[in-house]
Amino acid sequence: MTDQAKAEQIVDSYLCCLSEGDLEGVVALYADDATVEDPVGSEPITGRAAIAEFYRGALAMGIKLRRSGAVRLAAGEIVFPFVCASEAMGAPMEIEIIDHFVLNAEGKVQSMRAFWSEANIRPMAAEA
Amino acid sequence: MTDQAKAEQIVDSYLCCLSEGDLEGVVALYADDATVEDPVGSEPITGRAAIAEFYRGALAMGIKLRRSGAVRLAAGEIVFPFVCASEAMGAPMEIEIIDHFVLNAEGKVQSMRAFWSEANIRPMAAEA
């Protein structure tokens, strides 16, 4: 498998596990001492236990994620654009996000940073 | 002007100047001691003179750039997806790239990192 194919597999597993509510599957992508900064500028959280807690909150919102462009891989770092849809706030909405993963030697995510702000949130026009 | 609007202005100026061959316009977006790492994993170059030299080479290839998704701004950092088209290699091709800009207090680009690899290069199907 090429490095690109491996990177796409990690990204698609991430989006799929989050969309299907598979908390263990998401956490398994991370290194034991990984950090998550979501959104960029917030205090990073560290370690699988804290990361599981973070995603438990996200999954409770019934989010659905879909990739919206190519996975870019360079020197063990991955960035990719995606859309996160949720109905948790009463009205359906979407957030346009770009995630940045730094992989460790074992191919686990050592660092995740999510780039988005309120300016990237939009109401959903219609049912998909 | 909102921070988001300022970020979009920086990004659109960058893409427009590169597409129009406006070297001075591109370099003016950068801080004096800025760094450029393109692609991620290559040796970063530092300072406006070296950056101008780098873009002079890129502009010689007659590149045309267009944004392919929303500008994500968080805590003074910007990421955005775009497509870089070129005919310099004989056959028209496109590269799917995500750039990461870190802004300084004056709103100049202090650090640029470009995420792409050969896996993101594709032949162009037809004339635009």
Automatic annotation (TrEMBL), chains A, B:
Gene3D superfamilies: 3.10.450.50. InterPro entries: NTF2-like_dom_sf (IPR032710), SnoaL-like (IPR037401). It comes from the Bacteria. Residues 13-110 form the SnoaL-like domain. This is Nuclear transport factor 2 family protein. It comes from Microbulbifer taiwanensis.
